[in-house]
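fyi for ur records
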Amino acid sequence: MSTVVLINPFVVPAGQEEEFLKRWREATEHPRHAPGFVSTRLHKSLDSQAKFRFVNVAEWESPQHFQAALRAEAFQEIARRMPSPPLRRSTVSSPKRENFYHNRASIGDHALLYLPLL
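which gave:
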C-alpha cells in the first residue's frame, strides 16, 4: 500500500502552547478513526523563536481520504469549538497538494525522507 504524508506546520504564539496541544488532541480525535487514516505525529521545534513551533506529520492512504475526514460533520463540530481567532496553521482547512508527500526513502526505524509527490 502506497500512502501519502501530510506535513502541516502551525504558528503558535508564545504562551499558547498548552492551549494548542489541547486543541490539537481534540482535533485529531475524529480523523484518527476516519477511513484512510494511518498515523499522526506532532513535532515541537527546539527553537522557541521558530515561526512554525509545531509541525504535524500525518500519514493517510490518499489526500482524498484526509479531505473527506475534514468534511465530515464530526470534524466540522470540532472546528466550530476552536478558539477565535484560531491558532493558525499554514494550510487552513484544505491543505494544498504540495503539503502531501510520498515516502521515498527510510533509514533506521523511524527516519523518513519526504520528497514531493511526482
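Residues 17-29 form the longest helix (13 residues). thats all i got for now
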